[in-house]
């Protein structure tokens, strides 16, 4: 990927990160949306959409088409998803609906050219696990956009479903899932012995559990069923542990990304744990809002700027992964920024400033580092 698009992506990621602290700077804003009002501008939408949809979606399409630079369609998707984010922020839902439908068309045009209209790859044993995850990632992106269109139109015009939990802000999870699936695609494309019978069976089972499990979890959130949410959260956590086992036991042949991706997998496991704790908190201490909000903020940062940032970085450098990124200093800086300073910044301005400064430096290193030339023998 050339310097120019990476610069655009970097600016969007940093801007989204800063918007996460709008509650400290803008009157009437909070760092976490609990009951969003249609007459207010929610900066959290920019916080999440700039990363998950604009940056993550564009990088996923870049990875799928496999060109050395962003194609015209990828630039159109980047521009359109940026406009969608602004429209959603301004509560211009009709415009946002048209844009999300247009974006889904772009994604589908790329998906059908790369794979096929019907996702038969999911059911064919000849298709490697990496291919299944890759196809699922881009299909999830297009379906998320289509469902998002339907939700906005129903909430604003048709009023057929009238589900209180089915709102635009629930798609924070939906738009983060494609990047997560794409990261698994990269991981399993680098393994050498995943076709071994035992690991292969575990991999296929985990693929179906994670793809269907997240969809079921999303449905339970919409229906407001906390006990069911807890059960499926436990299942997803176990599946993440199984995926980590497959990741750990597979042969990599000295691939440099493994240490960096190991850090990402630990981020994902931690996200699974905090997700279970969030559901338990909602069940047993629903009135303790402040503590739950802090836990939710921590969970969001671990998922968004922990696991998903690892995935986005790996997709950007898929062809030439910089050795610098698997150094312990970068990994430690990533953990301190995302799991400690960023959540604390929700309550203390000094930590928010520190988190922003370190995040700017961290993402610059992650996106712009280059593979070092081989040393002469």
Verbal overview:
The protein has 377 residues and is mainly α. The protein has a single domain, classed as Cytochrome C Oxidase, Chain A (Up-down Bundle), CATH 1.20.210.10. Helix content is 74%, strand content 0%. It has 13 helices and no strands. Helix 3 runs antiparallel to helix 4 and helix 3 packs parallel to helix 11. The longest helix is centred in the middle third of the chain and has 30 residues. The radius of gyration is 20 Å and the shape is globular. The two termini are 30 Å apart.
Can you summarize this structure?
The protein has helices at 3-19, 22-25, 43-65, 72-89, 93-114, 129-158, 171-190, 197-223, 226-249, 257-284, 289-316, 328-344, 349-368. 74% of the residues lie in helices and 0% in strands.
Keywords:
Cytochrome C Oxidase, Chain A, mainly alpha, 377 residues, globular
Write the layout of secondary structure elements.
Blueprint: H1 3-19, H2 22-25, H3 43-65, H4 72-89, H5 93-114, H6 129-158, H7 171-190, H8 197-223, H9 226-249, H10 257-284, H11 289-316, H12 328-344, H13 349-368
Helix pairs in contact: 1-3, 1-13, 3-4, 3-6, 3-7, 3-11, 4-5, 5-6, 6-7, 6-8, 7-11, 8-9, 9-10, 10-11, 11-12, 12-13
